[in-house]
Amino acid sequence: MTEVSVRPVVSSPSAKRSQLIDVDVHERADLQALVPYLEPMWRKYITDFGWQPERVLPYSQYAAGGLDRLDAKLPDGRPGGSDYDLLRRQLLDEHDIDYAVLTGWLDASALQPGWAEFKTALMSAYNDWQIADWLSRDDRLLGSVHVNAHDPIGAAREIDRIGSHPKMVQAILYIADKAFGDPYYHPIYEAIARNNLALGFHHSENAPTALGFHRYFVEWHTLVPQVFMSELVSLIFNGVFDKHPELKVFMIEGGFTYVPHLMSRADQQYKELRSEVPWVKRMPSDIIRQQVRFATQPTEEMSLTQFMRLIDWCESDELFCFSTDYPHWDFDSPTEALPQGLSEDLQRKIFVENAQNGYAKMPALRTAGQ
């Protein structure tokens, strides 16, 4: 770990950043686009029965473009992330991104259980569509293996089927209302380990707060970190990290300012109650520092001193990886999201190295002049 300091350093992300990995970019598939990749027995659920993903969140997105940036919506009404050329212009080219990890839109892990075989097949179709329509079009795009967590054996089979693809860097689970540390899901982690992938956990509108869904969107959105804390606690104390000490986990679209509190609280409980979980061999904070990364979006406004103090409390500058969450309404620009004055070394860790070190299959970055 590099020693951190709260002393301001005069520089800015826009002036000093030369490379960038974005760990959360959403491409979006129209369901009809998946039909050619489904076997005939599954196509009818979309073509004949009109299946649509269940919408759980009882709010409208309180923004001009709904879920997305208004300028990311297509003239024909399609949502942001539906068109590669627009994404390329607005994100990859405008912000000079070296690699963008696609995290998708449709994921069966966040859908209610039921029709398990169909949803497993749907994720296979999504993966094939992602490779054909996105990964093959731009060297800067990297993929996530989408699986149906409600079918762990089927999910493991899908990871083994597609996880060796050179542009797949992680398997992704969208968080809903399940504690994924449960041994029921362990076949998924075993498959991830076999294929040298990272594991991404992504925020979902299917995830309630500790008290369900509050009256207003602003309440629910404020409390998003609750579900990330719940998942990490479940993974830690159910022994997932001890069973797979090489596994790297990315917590995506949940922010990161909650991390010092979680580390402190979990450490104290482990000291007092470790006899209940004898398979956990390390302090929770050490597990987090060694095996977990947090995507920065949505970044909260803070001063340089506050940001550096947060890193100091975590006792690591290797936990945070930059993400834009394109094309969503709360998109974070790499030139504006983080405090001005970060040292060049810290910028490089957040914008590049922490993601590089977390994704075992991350390709090498270009060098100056390439």
From TrEMBL:
Instruction: Report the InterPro entries cross-referenced here.
Output: ACMSD, Amidohydro-rel, Metal_Hydrolase
| Short name of one Pfam family | Amidohydro_2
Keyword Mitochondrion: yes or no? no
Q: Which residues cross the membrane?
A: none
GO cellular component term, pick one: cytoplasm
- Record GO biological process: secondary metabolic process
* Any GO molecular function: hydrolase activity
This protein's UniProt keywords: Hydrolase, Lyase
Domain Amidohydrolase-related, by residue range, is 74-356
Name of protein: Amidohydrolase
Q: Which organism is it from?
A: Amycolatopsis alkalitolerans
